[in-house]
Every structure is written in C-alpha cells, then in structure tokens.
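Q: What would this chain look like folded?
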Amino acid sequence: MNTAGDIYMEGKVKESELIGKVHSAVYHQCRHWGYAAPADVLVDVGVLPRQKYEDWRFGKEQYLEAVCTCKLKQLLFIMKQIRSYAKKTNLKPSFCYYKRWGVEKKQGRKAVIPSASVKAEIRRLKKHMRCIM
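A: My prediction, written as structure tokens:
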C-alpha cells in the first residue's frame, strides 16, 4: 500500500484534506478575529489539543512542538500551508509574542519558549497574519 502523501495525526489524513483544513481554519479565524495565529490554527486543525495548548501557555510544557500530536515534518507542512494561504489572500505578517499565562503582574510576564529549533524558518512561523478585508 502506498502511503506517500499521507499525514499522521490522530489518524491517517491525506495531504489534500489537511490543506483544506488549514486553509479553512485560517479563513474562519480571519473572519472571526481579524487575524490568524499559527497556534490557533494548529488547535483548529486538530494537531494541538486545547488542553495541551493551555499547558504550554501556563508553562507546564517547555516547547509547543512537544505537545503536538504530529511530527515536526508535518508541523512544517502545516506552517507552509498557512504561509501559502496568507500569500494567496494577501495577508500581512506581524510579530506575535506569546506571553505565559498565570503569572502575577508584579513578577512580570515571561515569554513562552515557542520552539526547540533555532532555524529561521521556525521563528518566521510564529507570526500573526493580519487580514485585509
């Protein structure tokens, strides 16, 4: 059986289905919030459980990639699809700073570590996309 082109998340998903899910998630977030954040897209697509996302934001998990239900290669594919949709629909990127939740103000908020990788490709993926509508 040829499994080329399949993405493994909670089950086996074809790349074409995943592309549709990613583009739909970005579209709906832009329509609802006015922007689309990669972490929210990952939650909507189903590769990042909401509880694990909250654990990461509260600092219980060090890296976002560690709590996703797919491999880094599949995460990069999803991020590439987010970028391709953003380019196709003329969305503007802007910097996104994920602050840790549950920290008192007098201590100051600490940044959540967004990625285990230091590649420029990964850092670029941590951007918001502002909608032009």
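Strands lie at 6-8, 12-14, 35-36, 92-95, 127-130.
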